[in-house]
Amino acid sequence: MVVYWLMFLLAAGSALSLGTRTVSLTHGMQSARLNSAWVAAWLVLTLLIGYRFEVGGDWFSYLYHLEEARHQDIYSAVERGDPAYRLLNLLAVKLGWGIWGVNIVSAFLFSAGLVFFCRGLPRPWLALAVAMPYMVTVVAMGYTRQSVALGLAMLGLVALTRKANVWFVFWVLFAAAFHKSAVLLLPISALAATHNRYWTGLWVAVATLLAYVLFLQSSVDALYTNYVEAQYQSEGALVRAAMNLVPACIYLVLGRRFRMQDSEAKLWRWLSIISIALFVGVIATPATTAVDRVALYILPLQLVVFAYLPDVLGIRGGKNTDYTGLVLLYYGVVLFVWLNYATHAAAWLPYRFYPLVAWF
Question: Cis omega before residue 350 (within 30°)?
Answer without folding.
Answer: yes
